[in-house]
Amino acid sequence: MTEEYERPRSKPAAVSGTPTAQELKGLIDSGRTGDKVSFPDPGAAPLGTDDEAAGTPDTPARVAMAIRHELKNSWDNKPPPVREGNWLASGAESGRPHSPNIQIYRPQLTSVLSIANRITGIFLSIGAIGMVVWLIAAATGPQPYAAVQGAMTSWIGQIVLVGFTFALFLHLCGGIRHLVWDAGYGFELRSIYVSGWAVVGASVVLTVAAWVASLFMAA
User: What is the DSSP letter of 186?
Assistant: First the structure.
């Protein structure tokens, strides 16, 4: 993996002895921190944006600590240029490769669930259209209804219905998770991953339970 992808060609912004959040963002955008490839990410706000807007930006010491933390696992062996002081000189860099993911960042549970939440929303919209087609067929007459019902009860139709069921519960559980976040809870890193795996597990359990219940009702 390391040899397949080129190192970032863009140079990171020079880091001063009193670094700012914008300098930290420049290092991340340059790819030097190893979190992503060399590409500016307009969606990533600099560290401490809210604090800066409030007139209380992070201290240079806090930003320096964040930069040391970001660079300690970087794969580029050359430290960024330092104009003043040597507070960054001790940053150890190990050679972590860059990941060619969807756009910039490597896939993680948080990003995968975020993307899945949007994809399941699309699937549910398609499923709603399918339900309307089924209702129209039922209201039209026996032959249209039998055709649609036959498609739904085929093995392909059953697989699609299982997929729609899982999409429903994943979207539902993900929405509950977001409601908890909206209330201001669960933002700790460990809590985010625990809730993420809980969403996946609950979606699988609810999908299986729904299909087992439907089989018992049909028997």
Answer: -
